[in-house]
Amino acid sequence: MLLLKRLFEYRELLYIFTWRHFTVRYRNTALGIVWAIIQPLVMMFLFTFLFTYVLKTGTGDIPKEVFFYASLLPWTFFSSSINYSTSSLVGNYGIITKIYFPREILPLSGILVAVIDLLIASVIYLFLLIIFKITLTFNVLWIIPIFILLFIFTMSCSFIFSCLNVYYRDVGLLTRFVVRLLFFASPVLYSIDSLSLKLKLLLFFNPLTFIIENMRRCVLEQRGVVLWQFAFAATLVIILFFFAHKLFIKTEKDFADVI
Amino acid sequence: MDKENLVELKNIWKKYKIIGKFKKSLRESISSFFKEKEEIEDDEFWALEDINLTLKKGECISIYGPNGSGKTTILKLISSITYPTKGEINIKGKVAPLISLGAGFHNDLTGRENILTNGSILGMSIKEIKEKEESIIEFSELDRKFIDMPVRKYSTGMNTRLGFSVAVHSTAEIILLDEILAVGDEKFREKCHEKIKELKETKSIILVSHHMDIVRSIVDRIVYIKKGKIVEEEEIKKESRQN
User: Fold this and answer.
1) CA neighbor of A83 nearest in space, from A183, A214, A13, A190
2) Is B217 a member of any domain?
3) Cβ atoms B217, B241 nearer than 8 A
4) For residue B159, is it within any domain?
5) Using CB atoms, which residue from A15, A20, A257 is nearest to B109?
6) Distance of alpha carbon A30 from alpha carbon A28, whole angstroms
7) CB A221: neighbour CB atoms within 10 A?
8) Considering the domain boundaries, does residue B169 fall inside one?
9) Residues of chain A found within 8 Å of residue B126, distances taken between Cβ atoms
């Protein structure tokens, strides 16, 4: 793949940027990496409260706490990656106009930091699974290919948003509410099980629907993945990725002149 | 490409836009995305016109000209930060563009951490940086007690000294120096000049500076540039150098 080829020579720089971003983010904070846990945890409590006392809709047999936490993990990963990477090129103006390196490194380092955050937040997930006595089967392993899909999808969106933001700062403002819209268009608060077939099909054009729904199912409900759905989501994601990377490389040459 | 040449610019033209408040309309940028125009429009100008330049192995040249004549643009082209509108560029070897010192210094990181990031941005491997760390700190003449403090607490002079020190430890074969001879106090400046002369022995250098006497004492050849065109080239004979 072209991306890997471009990054191979600069892998140490990617590592350094990730380390730098991670260090800078948590330096001079009192709580440090605990912040990676706070966000999904607080949201989880909020939703549990909301759906227990205010809206009173159930989440089936699954305790609400685990249900929401399970969907908030991939969602938080996606949204924080997008929020950071959209401004990653514009924000590093000083480096871009002075030195050459594959610019993908800038959005990517933000995504890698989100991976670290995700891993930290997963510790709480494990505790919740134990507390609520969820038994796991081998279907849990589906998490790995689905996460790879999530990673590629997040990367594609980051490439598109970050490079367009160089030309039009509107994009930075736009992504903020696109992310908010996507939150409701993805099964974070609900399961698509209960929806009509028509609506299901429509929602499946959002790759996050498949990703979040199945990341939750394979752990909490011990269910496997429907193969054609996986193939469909993977095809969407891969097509999007090729388009996104092409756009990124095509515009990259002008970054230093336009930014 | 000539075997000896590390850098070759052939008939390079570079067009820039006079950018107003808002760059382009969406329609314009979509249409220009698909075609590459070579002619010039009202709001554009040629920053470089038909530039031919070579840098041989072991050579040290200077580009000399008034502000806005295109010196930095040439350096940016050589370091692939920007691309020519027309023409061909051949580069052999790693380029360390020291267009501005301390690129990528982050205020919240310590001096030592910034050596690592800055060195990496300049193309050094982590291992190389770790090996040279002591020598970098030594050269910068920073007090040891400051090196593990965030650079936000540094003075401007300390900042540029550290930046220069990382830069001169670069492993690249081609070094671009843009107006960085005026670093720090007089004593440190003297040290910089000595260091550049020392670098000359092993590397190929392109130097941009307005200090003519310093330039003459260092370089082999001066390329005079005016309004984006090369107007004259002058070989500097070794005997005529001041020291």
Assistant:
1) A183
2) yes
3) yes
4) no
5) A20
6) 7
7) 17
8) no
9) 12, 15-16
Lowest mean pLDDT across A38-47, A125-134, B140-149, B183-192: B183-192
Cβ neighbours of B128 (radius 10 Å): 16
Task: Report how far residue A158's alpha carbon sits from residue A83's, in angstroms, rounded to the nearest whole number.
Answer: 9
Residue B47 lies in a domain: yes
Note the pLDDT of residue A120: 93
Q: CA geometry: angle at A244 spanning A239 and A249, to 5°?
A: 130
Residue-level pLDDT at B108: 86
Taking any CB pair shorter than 8 Å as contact, residues of chain B touching chain A are 16-17, 23-24, 26, 29, 33, 76, 79-83, 95, 97, 99-100, 103-104, 106, 108-109, 113, 116-117, 120-122, 125-126
Residue A206 C-alpha, separation from nearest chain B C-alpha, in angstroms: 26
Residues from chain B that touch A166, judged by Cβ atoms under 8 A, are none
Enumerate the residues of chain A whose CB falls inside 8 A of the CB of residue B121.
13, 16, 95, 99, 101
Choose the closest CB to A94 out of B83, B103, B125. Answer: B103
Smallest CA–CA separation between A178 and chain B, in Å? 20
Q: Which residues contact A70 (CB under 8 A, 6 or more apart)?
A: A125, A215, A216, A219, A220
Residue B33 binned pLDDT confidence (cut-offs 50, 70, 90) = low
Q: Given this model, what pLDDT does residue B29 score? A: 64
Contact across the interface for B80 and A100, Cβ inside 8 Å: yes
Check A16 against B113: CB less than 8 A apart.
no
Chain A residue nearest residue B104, CA to CA: A95
Please report the pLDDT score of residue B103 as a whole number. 67
Please count the structural domains in chain B.
1
**Domain residue limits at B66:** 5-93+211-240
Closest partner CB to A27 (pick from B82, B97, B108): B108
Residue B36 has pLDDT above 60, yes or no: no
At A16 the pLDDT is 93
Whichever domain contains B23, its CATH number is 3.40.50.300
User: pLDDT tens for residues B118-133?
Assistant: 888 888 899 999 999 9
User: Could you identify the residue written with the tokens 């819209």?
Assistant: A181
Alpha-carbon distances, residue B233 vs A229, B36, B54, B64, B220 (angstroms): 67, 32, 12, 10, 11
Give percent of chain B above pLDDT 70.
82
CA distance B239 to chain A (A): 36
Asked if A99 lies within 8 A of B81 by C-beta distance, the reply is: yes
- Which strands sit side by side in the sheet containing B221-226, from one edge to the other? B95-98, B174-178, B204-208, B60-64, B221-226, B229-235
Average pLDDT per 10 consecutive residues for chain A, totaling 259 residues: 87 93 88 88 90 78 89 95 93 85 93 95 93 89 95 96 91 92 91 86 91 92 89 95 94 83
Say yes or no for a CB contact (<8 Å) between A99 and B121. yes
A50 vs B19, residue with greater confidence? A50
Confidence category of residue B34, pLDDT binned at 50, 70, 90: low
Q: Which of A12, A97, A167 sits opposite B23 (nearest CB)?
A: A167
